[in-house]
Amino acid sequence: MSDDDFLRVTDVSKWYGEEQVLHDVSFEMDRGDVTVLIGPSGSGKSTMLRCVNRLAEAQEGSILLDGEEVLSPDLDVDELRREVGMVFQGFNLFAHLTAVGNVALGPRRVLGLSETEARERAEDQLERVGLADQLDSYPAELSGGQQQRVGIARALAMEPKLMLFDEPTSALDPELIGEVLEVMHGLVDEGMTMLVVTHEMSFARAVADEIVFLDDGRVVERGPPEQLFERPEEERTGRFLERIASHD
Amino acid sequence: MASATRPATVRERVAESDRSVGRLLLVAAGALFWGWLAVSWVNRWLGGVLVPVGQPLVPPAAVEATLAGIPVLAAYAADAGFVVEMTPDLARGTWLTVVITGVSLALGFVIAVPLAVTRVYGRFSAWVSLAYTELLRGTPLLAQLFVLYYGLNLASYVPDAVSGVFAREVVWVAILGFTLNGAAYQAEYIRGALESVEEGQITAGRAIGLSKLETIYHVVLPQGLRYAIPSWTNEFVYLIKYSSLAGFITVPELYYRADQIAAETFRYTLIFLVTGVMYLALVLTASKLMVRVEERVAIPGLGAEREE
After folding, report:
1. pLDDT value at position B304?
2. SS3 for A9?
3. Is the pLDDT of residue B308 over 60?
4. What is the DSSP string of B206-258?
5. Contact at CB, B206 and A55, closer than 8 angstroms
6. Mutate which of B208, B211, B220 to test chain A, going by most A C-beta atoms within 10 A?
7. Distance from C-alpha of B123 to C-alpha of B18, rounded to nearest angstrom
8. For B222-271, how does the pLDDT look when each residue is reduced to its tens digit (9 = 90+)?
9. Which tens digits make up the pLDDT trace of B203-224?
10. Closest CA to A36 of A189, A170, A198
11. Are B196 and B121 in contact (CB under 8 A)?
């Protein structure tokens, strides 16, 4: 563990009421790394992800992002979220805005760009995710895969230093998953730092620098994909991967 | 898609032409009503360029004579002449009703939006908003008007800057009363609509760094206010009708004028029948207008799940 880790999560614990959902979770990432959180549903991986941009509040532990304590009560959370992009399982596109409107809202209202600049940036980002021909479509007029790509463009338009993906393909029909993964592959190639919660094991295997396996709110095992997938040290990891594989 | 190419049955064609005849009649009646109102107002405003102020736009005697010549309508000729004679008063009353309703509705909306927002997203302020809403909805509107007019004597506090806008200061008291009361009802409709905006919309707004207030302004309100239009139209329609309560604090709006005419002439049935038609015209206009507004601001997919 070096001092210049880009993201360092240390002993993060979280309770919902009486129930503890995260138990001393720790992991770290360098700039440009891709870390994939895997685990059964209810294992706390989405909650962990949301603690990083404070959509969920961890009660204990420390999350250092670029040297700054994310969990500090003095932190300006809006400032933090400006720099950390997030992509949701359910897309959560603004239903009253077109694709361009969705992507331009942050640059316009949060970053303070002019109307024209914000629109230009939105168009560039939509082009980046392959939606140059759907600029003025409303979310309801787009397929799930297209909506999720708008969601990615919306996060990218803020020029984040870290991207969080919360099961970005789980709500998609199988034939639409590919187009979203393709965009994500592209981001990996560009060197984006990404923390990803997903069940797409082939994606995880192909791009992850490290896999973190969570079960019951605890880190069971973590390591590079070849190690975790080929020679898991923990029995639970092996069982989980077998179960997942049999569904593929 | 077979049904789209199937020739319409006779019954369907009759129904279709009935509908278009109905629509035509409605448009004609609307044009007549608003034309009469507008011309009357312009005539009065310009000091009687068309006919002397206080005179009907068409001479009652002429109407009476014309109708008397038509066999089926001859029996109603005298009544029609009487009604035409009363139209200047009715036009003034109707105009005031329109103004009071429009101004109160707009001012009420300005108060209702923050009320609804604090009710849904506030903490302490949610209780203040709830208390306001319950107090204003839970007491009779007429009693509220009496408190403002007789109790607090607010008519004597109307600022000089606006006291000349209407012939009498009491009109402002009525507008204040309807604004405060209507805001409570409007807030209830808007609150319901805001609550139906999905939680994920707010999460997404916060996730790109918008503050809570900015998220409400840029994300929740544009959606929620669109959802609110159909139920909010109810408040519009109610306000047109309960603006007649202003008559009880001596505001010379439509009901007040009708009541005065009736008291002087004892033609209660006829006058209130005609007055009823005036209110009906206003209400129909309001609901048609709001349907137009709803269509105008509609966004594909937004609110579709609510129509199921």
Report:
1. 52
2. strand
3. no
4. HHTT--HHHHIIIIIHHHHHHHHHHHHHHHHHHHHHHGGGGGGGT--SHHHHH
5. yes
6. B208
7. 54
8. 999 999 999 999 999 999 999 999 999 999 999 999 999 999 999 999 99
9. 999 999 999 999 999 999 999 9
10. A198
11. no
Residue A224 has pLDDT above 50, yes or no: yes
Which of A85, A37, A44 shows the shortest CA–CA distance to A65? A85
Task: Delineate the domains of chain A, giving CATH numbers in brackets.
Answer: 7-247 (3.40.50.300)
Beta carbons of A88 and B204 less than 8 Å apart: yes
In this structure, what token pair is assigned to residue A177?
């998953």
The whole-angstrom distance between B227's CA and the closest CA on chain A is: 11
- For the stretch B139-177, pLDDT in tens is 999 999 999 999 998 877 877 777 777 778 889 999 999
Q: Number of A:B CB contacts under 8 A?
A: 76
B213 contact partners, CB below 8 Å, separation of at least 6: none
Q: Which domains does chain B have, with CATH numbers?
A: 98-295 (1.10.3720.10)
Decide if B301 and A140 are in contact by the 8 Å CB cutoff.
yes
Mean pLDDT of chain B: 89
Those residues with Cβ within 8 angstroms of residue B130's Cβ, 6 or more apart along the chain or in another chain: B119
Closest CA to A86 of A209, A192, A198, A168: A168
Strand order in the sheet with A7-16: A19-29, A7-16, A60-65, A68-69
Looking from the CA of A57 toward its CB, the CA atoms found within 13 Å total 7
What are the backbone angles phi and psi of residue A162, rounded to the nearest 5°? -145, 135
Closest partner residue to A95 (CB to CB) among B209, B218, B302 is: B302
Most confident of B47-61, B67-81, B236-250: B236-250
